[in-house]
Amino acid sequence: MPQPTLQTRHNPRYRRRAFKDQLARYFVGVGGISVIAAILLIFFYLLYVVIPMFESAQIHQVSEYTVPGSGKTLYIGVEELGEVALRISDQGEVVFFKSADGTVMKRVQLKLPARVTSIADNFDNVMLGLENGEAIALKYVFTASYHNDVRELTPGIEYPLGEKLLVIDQAGEPLRRISFHINDDSAGVAALTNDNRMRYVRYARTQDFLTQSMTTELESNSEYVMKKPARDLVLTPNLQYIYTATETAGLLQFTLTDEGLDEAPVSQAFKQNISSVGLLLGGASLMVGLENGEIQQWMQVRDKNAAGEDTRKLTFIRKFNSNTHTIQTIAAEHRRKGFAVGDSSGEITVYYATSNRTLATINTGAGSVKELAWSARGEHLLALDDNEHMHVYDVHNEYPEVSWDVLWGKVWYEGYDQPDYIWQSSASTNDFEPKLSLVPLSFGTIKAAIYAMLFAVPIAILGAIFTAQFMAPRMRQTVKPAIEIMEALPTVILGFLAGLWLAPLVEAQLAGIFALLIILPPGFLLFAWLWRYVPGRSVFDGWEAALLIPVVLLLIWFAMAISHPIENVFFDGNLRLYMSQHWGIGFDQRNSLVVGLIMGFAVIPTIFSIAEDALFSVPQHLIRGSLALGATRWQTLMRVVLPAASPGIFSGLMMGFGRAVGETMIVLMATGNTPVMDMSIFEGMRTLSANIAVEVPEAEVASTHYRVLFLAALVLFLFTFIFNTAAEIIRQRLRKRYSAL
């Protein structure tokens, strides 16, 4: 390029042009840097939201003091915010005190005919078993009031089953272990007596609609003489099972029926004696503590008996073994699947069941841990040692549900028959176990993109080839802009049409859809063969695509017309039902086939436009040179045009795939939006982007659910970034390889 002369440099027009060039270069540079900065800001903001999920839990001691009151402590509890605690002694004394320093707030002496020998709790409900075989249920409540903007709590006691003592054992033997649950219309009490009998009593509860008073009536009682000395027992909240630990390393399961108690020994033999048992929130999981410090989780799992009938079997799920000394007590959190254990060395360990994580560990330094109590929010933990010293701990444990295995591995959830990848972030019950696997969402994202590309790529690429190389110029001037305008169609409109029109149509004409796939190729070939014998066909060179339109419409009409006859002849009149009954293939109305058709329609303009530009931009001298050397138009296309245009075609494919991966509204409206892992074209899916759109509005800010959704966004971001980077590397290599053409 010739250098400007001195006279040219002093020319005002040249200086203005140079200034404009410099300004344009500056703005282009700033724009490019701004785009990169914006992408980096998005990336770092996603990291900022996600990283707190993987921080370790923290536990530290706030205070230590001798527990107030007299007698032997059998139970400790604490209110929701951890401000007020209570203690129940073997003398029936209930003491409410400030958890921070042990200052007594209120004392209640229960009028009991005998000494308290055992206590069980169901969060704020407590059952006291007495030395004379009777029991009484209590509920501690706290009434909040405000004086000069200062919150004050007034403790009190209620009697959910009435103030009258319940007769559990008519023989009057002391109840050395007791467990209970109170439901809306029933209550159950299970107890072990000193002479090694197990008693189960069930009560019916009815409420007076006028006075709102609750009446408790005896419904049934059962007894079972234990063959081996029993150490502990728990009753499930649904009043269906009793689990009993024996002193000879055994675990027994009793099924509660109208006829009585059915014993079913657990088949697995424990290598160590069982020292403690407890239930997680909801009662679906049994936690078994052993003398060697190991904690095991067991659940009821569906199984088949010898007769082939479905039954429920208590099954070992996972173990936790951070402790090394005998487990003395197990305390479950009130609102999550977390629990704390205390052992004989004074060590307290906090676990989370679903993620199989050891969250935090601390040692009281004062002997064995006898009792543990969580506040309802899981922010405070009280521990009582065997010296009657209370240890108060603050617990910072925001995101225990998340681990690498939970996000990307198979997890055995409560109520499932085996480990699996599950996404189910919420439910209607308070004892729900969050299922936060990103695998089904990632699978659905890839599945939707693959089916869309299977439909879009052949049509877009072959259409681009014909438009760029064979179509008449006048027709190209109409077709190309028309297809590019299709790209501007709002995807919400396409999703609306797919869900309300296309999905029912595909369901009603399923046989016709597959017949169309078989009919179209031979129909085109038949038309091409007949076209050879049309005189004067050279007049229509480049306009063949327009002539194919009526042929396509005719073939579509024919396929739809024979849809129901095909079903009647070959599939007993219903193809969907036939597939389900004979092939085991289910059919959802909004499925991958619908998504592939409609999202492929949305992706076609992107791939077509970029590929057609690349094919049309191949230098004409290459094409003419090839034809001049005797190559046919088809040979020229395959050997010259496609290699030269391959970088652009590849870019179009990657752009289309990127759009398919990030598509939200179409998959949101055109699928069942179910996070299942099934490659069947007749099943739906849920994608990462659709899941974010659905669940972000309902997610609590800064909750685990909220941050996992941001993690899903980060995964989608990284996936597209890595995929596009790899695609760009391949495109540059193709460009370098064919640049010499």
Question: Overview of this structure, please?
Answer:
Strands 6, 7, 8, 9 and 10 form a five-stranded antiparallel sheet that branches. A four-stranded antiparallel sheet has the order 1-29-28-27, with no helix packed on it. The chain is elongated. The two termini are 25 Å apart. The chain is 38% helix and 29% strand. By secondary structure, the chain is of the alpha+beta class. The chain has two domains: 58-178 and 259-299 and 314-408, 7 Propeller (Methylamine Dehydrogenase, Chain H); 444-531 and 540-737, MetI-like (MetI-like fold), CATH 1.10.3720.
Describe the structure in brief.
This protein has about 750 residues and is α+β, with helices and mostly antiparallel strands.
Please outline the helices and strands.
Layout: H1 6-9, H2 12-50, E1 58-66, E2 73-78, E3 84-89, E4 93-98, E5 104-109, E6 116-122, E7 125-130, E8 134-147, E9 150-158, E10 166-167, E11 175-182, E12 186-193, E13 197-207, E14 214-225, E15 230-235, E16 241-246, E17 251-256, E18 261-265, E19 274-279, E20 285-290, E21 295-304, E22 310-320, E23 327-332, E24 338-343, E25 347-352, E26 357-363, E27 369-374, E28 380-385, E29 389-396, H3 404-408, E30 423-424, E31 435-436, H4 439-469, H5 473-486, H6 491-508, H7 510-531, H8 544-561, H9 563-570, H10 575-583, H11 592-616, H12 620-628, H13 633-662, H14 665-670, H15 688-695, H16 704-737
Antiparallel strand pairs: 1-29, 2-3, 3-4, 4-5, 6-7, 7-8, 8-9, 8-10, 11-12, 12-13, 13-14, 15-16, 16-17, 17-18, 19-20, 20-21, 21-22, 23-24, 24-25, 25-26, 27-28, 28-29, 30-31
Helix pairs in contact: 2-16, 4-11, 4-13, 5-11, 6-11, 7-8, 7-9, 11-13, 12-13, 13-16, 15-16
